[in-house]
Amino acid sequence: TMDGGPSxxxxxxxxxxxxxxxxxxxFNIYPNPAISSIDLLCRFDESGSYTYFIYDNLGxxxxxxxxxxxxxxxxxxxxxxxxxxxxxxxxxxxxxxxxTKKLIVAE
Length: 107
Known about the structure:
- The protein is an all-beta fold.
- The chain has no helices and 7 strands.
């Protein structure tokens, strides 16, 4: 039933609480945990200059860089050469937006 009430035939019932909102500024990391490299599937709402930062769990900057990216979905690959085993945070920013995801480097 749509109202979340009991159903006599034991079928699934639900209630819509809020609409699903997809962000136009997001990325996913895989594999995660990573070993020697990571792939990013990115969705950006505008073309332009994007800066990335990789911070360790103590807040120390491990790597950063700047990329010129196009609006839409983009696939990126990063080698993790020089990044020690541990927990990290990967942040992308373009000045107006910023998003951070956890990254685990296993070896």
